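Hey, quick one: can you model this chain's 3D structure?
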Amino acid sequence: MRRAFGIAAAALGASAVALGAFGAHALQGRLDEAALRIWHTAVEYQFWHALALIGVAALVPARTTRTWRACGIAFVAGALVFCGSLYALALGAPPWLGAATPIGGGALIMAWVLLGFALAKRQD
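Sure thing. Here's the predicted structure for all 124 residues.
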């Protein structure tokens, strides 16, 4: 799991940088200020949660527990759903897609809670 979470974190981080640059250069003048703020929020959340996932990859024990596994999966799924829905909304997706955003946000909150549980149970 350590390797998978590390690879996922690297992919999330690299794509956050690319999407941030895309938003700053290619979308300027094409999207209004509100849409650009939504885009920026997605990039920030994606990058911060890529860093969190790096932490999970570094801390997960060799014998992965269900809590650690669920934590990493929740970070990945949450970042994809939360940020992905914001990117889509910024680009003009139908407003009903915004219903996915709180689902992704809930997954990110759950990931942080699971990280706390995993660290509390960790035996070094």
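One thing worth noting: The chain has four helices and no strands.
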